Amino acid sequence: MLIRYGTDERGKPVKKALIYTKLEHGISKDKIDADALRIIERLRGAGFSAYIVGGAVRDLIVGNVPKDFDIVTDATPSRIKKIFRNARIIGRRFRLVHVVFGPKIFEVSTFRSTADGSVGNEFGSMDEDVRRRDFTLNALYYDPVKEQVVDYVGGVRDIKKHVLRPVIALDRIFVEDPVRMLRAVKYSATTGARMPFSLKCKIRKSAHLLETVSASRLTEELLKIINSGRAYDIVREALETDLYMYLQPAATSRMYESKEFESAYMKHLQALDELSASDGDVRLGRKLVFIVQDFIETLTDWKKEVALRTPSGELYIRTWSECRKYVLPMNPQRTELEFAVRSVLQTLGVAVRSSKKRRKSIEYTDDQ
After folding, report:
1. DSSP characters for 18-58?
2. Does the global pTM surpass 0.85?
3. Could you tell me which of 360, 325, 231, 221 has the C-alpha nearest to residue 287?
4. Do residues 87 and 106 touch, judged by C-beta distance below 8 A?
5. Could you read off the pLDDT of 68-96 as tens digits, one per residue?
6. Residues that are catalytic
7. pLDDT per residue over 116-175, tens digit each?
8. Which stretch of DSSP H or E encloses residue 114?
């Protein structure tokens, strides 16, 4: 094991980070996307430093193949864009670069400063950048050229011990960005990392901070949960830490009121995960079926509505409107929620078709 040194205010050498060699970290280079390696090599060739960072390093250490490879560098976004013709700068305040290779998008960020805490936008050094990262298991940097893992915060140790430990102090981490609570729950549920008692208590006490988060960010996080293939585990953790009431308040309220509803809801999340595992390309609307099905079934006596031949257009409009409110603050694409509502109605005996003129033509199924 190697040690990276820096200097303190007096110019004396101080230990900054541990450096794990190939024999120690055990990362297999053939699990790294070739285009991610190409990006790092190009940045290095232009005189900049560059590393794979975050969850990808965690996955590589435990022997998994990462879904995404995020890259961090000391090159500024404008400089990165000049190096890669297939790049675009995104974000107004927090600028990042997306480097595109066909259907693949690689996120390349610049080291950030701690001058304005853990959410500021100033560029900085690697020593500062690590102090802005949320949890130690995501605060590792991998150099695929030297095949070394740079660890400032004991992340390798925590991965091996299956412990979720924050990098940022507990009195600041969730105040500065409440969405970190959702990440904590997600990491704990998907990696098997145990949350210390102090961290779990802090999340429960800070859960109300999610009220200040925009609907767009909450929608993004909820869609990540739905698409994760581990929705059941994540939602269970979110319920235990009092977070889910801010993500899906209507569903949480019904689960608190009825154990039967809670059981059905959680079983549908398991079915959602099974679908995600069998078909990673399935459209969002099909997944939303598992989120709204239990709610739709409670709206009315559907057998009676069909027997009385209640106008199906009225049934659809009323159901869609109620579902739209039910999933708030999540705001999925309208066509996907419409697809989910139509799918559930069909199972209840009502079929809904969309005409090319965008007018709804609604009819009962042939067997009614």
Report:
1. EEE-HHHH---GGGS-HHHHHHHHHHHHTT--EEEETHHHH
2. yes
3. 231
4. no
5. 999 999 999 999 999 999 999 998 777 89
6. 68, 70, 134
7. 777 778 899 999 999 999 999 999 999 999 999 999 999 999 999 999 999 999 999 999
8. none
